[in-house]
Amino acid sequence: MGKKLEGNGLWESSRMMLPEHKNRIISDERETLRRIQPVLDEQKQEEIESTLALSLRSHVCVTVILFDPFENETVSGFVTSIHTHSREIKLQWAEEWKWIRVDQIVEAYIV
Q1: pTM of this prediction?
Q2: What InterPro entries is this protein classified in (predicted)?
């Protein structure tokens, strides 16, 4: 006759759920799993800023860990410019570069 619904019934049965509904359920679950950006103390912020300045002055490679609501991103490269008024750095690696807000950085260290 028909397939018996097992487990969570309707939620796990691909025959009974429209793809749009499944995508919405998955996106709702991701929303609930979002993390909150940690608030860094003043000492940690100064440490990150001095590491970025050192990379700019000495042209040494730095690795920065950027906050993301779902999973942190790690990027390595050389700081080629610092804009203090907008609190952004320009990080360059190979032939690519990216502007990064200092507020996004949760960790920075020299490679």
Answers
A1: 0.69
A2: YolD
